[in-house]
Amino acid sequence: MEYITLNNGVKMPKLGFGVFQISKEDCEQCVLDAINVGYRLIDTAQSYFNEEEVGNAISKCGIPREELFITTKVWIDNYGYEKTLESIDESMKKLKVDYLDLVLLHQPFGDYYGSYRALEKLYKDGKIRAIGVSNFYPDRLSDICAFNEVTPQVNQVETNPLHQQIDAQKNMEKNNVQIEAWAPFGEGKNNMFENPVLVGIANNYHKSVAQVILRWLVQRDVVALAKSVRKDRMKENFEIFDFTLSDDDMNTIKSLDTNESLFFNHQTPEAVDMFINLIKQRRD
């Protein structure tokens, strides 16, 4: 495993296991399998509704707590200073831990300033080792860096070969914030696994397209989150530290960038409406 060092000195694995869209029924075993394969960074969120199952796996896995890097995210409906404090306490109970390695604000909407102050308090109290945000575009990230006491350690954003976040990463580096990738495979959209450029590079290294994508991210110093419910695929995704992509191949992959999300643009009114509906659905 390779590691990066965050702006507060905390070390974070460059490759992690994400549990987005893994059902409650499957989640515990999937996390146990991932830890058995070698993953130590486990990424969940309040809005995934599987924190408790992740906690069951953490308590059963037999790996010392200090060797695991556990991340969760605060959902928009829990934004605001007091609600965020209460929600993180609930998350810690579900995860069966007495501290969290990283907590992120999941979306750049609502009272994220109040929530960020709550993260700062828990960080200073030693309940959270690192704090950050998710889906914050360069303007919002620069804003929250400029007007808060603790600079975010991490910003988790969609990052994949078709949406590479080149300028956003430069802005994060300027602000000393670590970029972390969700949807590194773009959920297979736009036939990413059949992309002829990626397939050609993968064949040259006798690797899979998924392995090439994860290796490309790691070489860009992007923390990558891979998800699978199959243990053999988890193992395959983990086996990316025995080869290095050439500069030519890195540049070839760079040419695939469309600079557009495969999902949606948070900066549109339609995205705000979508999240308002999501909040209502999760309340029900």
Automatic annotation (TrEMBL):
Which ranges carry the NADP-dependent oxidoreductase domain? Answer: 18-257
Keyword annotations of the record = NADP, Oxidoreductase
Please give the InterPro entries that the UniProt record associates with this protein. Answer: AKR (IPR020471), Aldo/ket_reductase_CS (IPR018170), NAD(P)_OxRdtase_dom_sf (IPR036812), NADP_OxRdtase_dom (IPR023210)
Originating organism: Breznakia pachnodae
Q: What is this protein called?
A: Diketogulonate reductase-like aldo/keto reductase
Kindly indicate whether the keyword NADP belongs to this entry: yes
A Pfam family annotated for this UniProt entry: Aldo_ket_red
Family per UniProt? Belongs to the aldo/keto reductase family.
* PROSITE patterns documented for this protein: ALDOKETO_REDUCTASE_1, ALDOKETO_REDUCTASE_2
